[in-house]
From TrEMBL:
It is an enzyme of class 5 (isomerase). Its EC number is 5.1.3.14. This is UDP-N-acetylglucosamine 2-epimerase (non-hydrolyzing). The keyword Endoplasmic reticulum does not apply.
């Protein structure tokens, strides 16, 4: 009897879990593969929401989240706790996704133990190692040690080729976030989403929803305060027209300035982090999205929702080229001006409403599994 290929999927945050969920499901239904799941729980509560939503039960849960831990502490914990698990499992392949600290540390451990590393969502680049921080360096480290680069788009493939990655190591798969998104939008709207829309009189003849997320490390401090000032000005300017919904990240560096500057402001609702199912349905209901999140850039593009990106660079230029995303940075005046234009000028708004999705067709997971099964190094290597 032929031995099954042992593949471990490793992730630690909610965005990773969303994108890896379709891959884990595809691995589990592939007879030739012995699939195992390891979570670092770099983000505990937000990760658990997605595990429950997609019915994923990890084989190993390292439970590494600690309050306000530094990147160095988290990296050290991943190395010391994940290393013995990998030595015990001795997998043939390790799959990691994206650009988190979990990805960087796990990929290096795979290299140390001579485990083949498949990097899902490989090849994203902003061109600035400080934006996003530390993600831009994390994904570059993963690219150095990866055996197989599972690029979401042709643009990502070109980035890898420019960096000297051999062509035979790269497979363009699409992004599994679209697989997950397609599954979620088919599900009925959850009660939580409906209650939020009703409570704030959003939709039909009511207010228009402006959905906001802002939590990136490079926006901590002055940038996040400027973003909050922009939201306050928009709420005052369009007090009878819009309702701003801002699910606030649990990081204290986000919670403190956001609640200090925006708590109690009319038509701004500060909510705890929302479950992914609720978030997607609110995204569908939104008139406008303001975000510094990478995943929401992809999801908003997939749903054709005009989105202002609260960053100076993006590693997802496909969304900008499609016309759905626009980079506006974090300066208060620019955010207010661009949001006002889209709220007042219907022609400008409609120019950003697109249905074409550059991030994939919803079949990325099966292509990823096929790429692992069919991976073959050229003779002589």
């Amino acid at each position: 009897m032929t031995r099954k290929l042992r593949v471990v999927s490793i992730f630690g945050t909610r965005p990773e879990a969303v994108k890896m969920a379709p891959v884990v499901q595809a691995l589990a239904r592939t007879p030739e593969i012995d699939s195992r799941v390891i979570v670092t729980a770099q983000h505990r509560q937000m990760l658990d929401q997605v595990l429950d939503l997609f019915g994923i039960r990890p084989d190993y849960d390292l439970n590494l989240m600690q309050p306000n831990q530094t990147l160095a502490q988290l990296t050290a914990a991943i190395f010391t706790h994940l290393d013995p698990v990998l030595r015990h499992l001795q997998p043939d392949w390790m799959l990691v996704q994206g650009d988190t600290t979990t990805v960087m540390a796990a990929a290096l451990l795979g290299y140390y133990q001579r485990i083949k590393v498949g990097h899902v969502e490989a090849g994203l680049r902003s061109g600035d190692r400080w934006q996003p921080f530390p993600e831009e360096v994390n994904r570059r480290v993963a690219s150095v040690v990866a055996d197989l680069h599972l690029a979401p788009t042709r643009h990502s493939r070109q980035n890898l080729l420019r960096e000297g990655v051999e062509e035979w190591r790269i497979v363009v798969t699409g992004n599994p976030v679209i697989d997950a998104l397609n599954e979620i939008v088919r599900r009925p709207m959850p009660a939580e989403a409906g209650q939020i829309l009703d409570r704030y009189q959003i939709g039909r003849q009511g207010r228009q929803l402006v959905l906001v997320t802002a939590h990136r490390r490079e926006n901590f401090g002055e940038p996040l305060e400027a973003i909050c000032c922009a939201l306050k000005q928009l709420s005052e300017r369009y007090k009878d027209k819009i309702q701003i919904i801002y699910p606030v990240h649990l990081n204290p560096n986000v919670q403190e300035p956001v609640y200090r500057l925006l708590d109690g402001v009319a038509n701004i609702a500060l909510l705890p982090p929302l479950e992914y199912l609720t978030m997607v349905h609110l995204l569908q209901a939104a008139r406008l999205v303001l975000t510094d999140s990478g995943g929401i850039q992809e999801e908003a593009t997939g749903l054709g929702k005009p989105t202002l990106v609260l960053r100076n660079t993006t590693e997802r230029p496909e969304g900008v080229e499609a016309g759905v995303l626009k980079l506006v940075g974090w300066q208060t005046e620019r955010i207010v001006a661009e949001a006002s234009r889209l709220l007042e000028d219907e022609n400008a708004y409609q120019a950003m409403v697109k249905a074409e999705n550059p991030f994939g067709d919803g079949r990325a997971a099966e292509r990823i599994v096929d790429a692992v099964l069919n991976f073959l190094e050229p003779r002589g290597r």
